[in-house]
Amino acid sequence: MNLFYLRYFVTLAHVKHYTKAAEQLCITQPSLSHAIAQMEKELGVPLFEKNGRNTMLTPFGREFLSCAEHTLSTLDDGIASLQRSARGSGLIRLGFVRPLGIEFVPHLAADFLRAYPENDIRFTFHTGITQHLLDDLAQRKVDLLFCSKPQDDLKFTAVPVQKQELVVIVPQNHPLAARSAKDGICLSDTASYPHIYFTKTSGIRSVIDDMFHRENVIPNIVYETEEDEVIAGLVAQDFGIAVVPYMDLLSKLPVRILPILSPDYERNFYLVHDGSVYMPPAVENFRNFILNRTF
């Protein structure tokens, strides 16, 4: 069934006059007559009959009109939806590690919505550890990630967008707590104490491993967990000491926060996407919006 013929049929059904309907459709009357004749031939029943100067629907035509209007309405809705998406409206599915969910990601999303008020933009927010987030990206459950740098073999595109400070935290009654927070600490000074460590699935694990390696120190790992908040809580209860990202929560716990003097390090969060997957305009606009900002 020719889509143009469907539109011709619906127009003629409402106008009820071949000449007027043809003018409205910007086609010739013979072209309209030919289209209706082809439809009737294909369907095997008459759709219109003459009633004086007007053209009226037959019972078959009235039955088919409801179907044709519904079909065209559904098609037009789909076209309009795609056109809105092409202009930048649509869904953006974000995944990020929890520390970035307090301020960084919400702030970016809110700024983006304010920058494009004319678009119908919706976000979904998913949190987790880096490895789980990367699995979600590979399975196309999310569009963009904010997390630790992915392994090179994943072949994802990763751009650093946010730096993160790492600190050593110790219980307030710990021998190292006597040190001044202004003076800081070298990781080599922590070698003899039990450490609470990130699991191997955590993106930050490789960063901390490399720091200890460059200090020629093998940390005494007594506990491992995925979440930095949990590590902070365990340190506060004297289960050990730890290297963690600085977070506001630390100031509310009974721990001493010591800046790291040595070794030098760079801990970044990355904006990650799968370059082999089509990126909808809304997602691409948000990614460009982020990369154009100065952090």
Automatic annotation (TrEMBL):
<keyword id="KW-0804">Transcription</keyword>
<feature type="domain" description="HTH lysR-type">
    <location>
        <begin position="1"/>
        <end position="58"/>
    </location>
</feature>
<dbReference type="InterPro" id="IPR036390">
    <property type="entry name" value="WH_DNA-bd_sf"/>
</dbReference>
<dbReference type="InterPro" id="IPR005119">
    <property type="entry name" value="LysR_subst-bd"/>
</dbReference>
<dbReference type="Pfam" id="PF00126">
    <property type="entry name" value="HTH_1"/>
</dbReference>
<dbReference type="Pfam" id="PF03466">
    <property type="entry name" value="LysR_substrate"/>
</dbReference>
<protein>
    <submittedName>
        <fullName>LysR family transcriptional regulator</fullName>
    </submittedName>
</protein>
<dbReference type="InterPro" id="IPR036388">
    <property type="entry name" value="WH-like_DNA-bd_sf"/>
</dbReference>
<keyword id="KW-0805">Transcription regulation</keyword>
<dbReference type="InterPro" id="IPR000847">
    <property type="entry name" value="LysR_HTH_N"/>
</dbReference>
<keyword id="KW-0238">DNA-binding</keyword>
<comment type="similarity">
    <text>Belongs to the LysR transcriptional regulatory family.</text>
</comment>
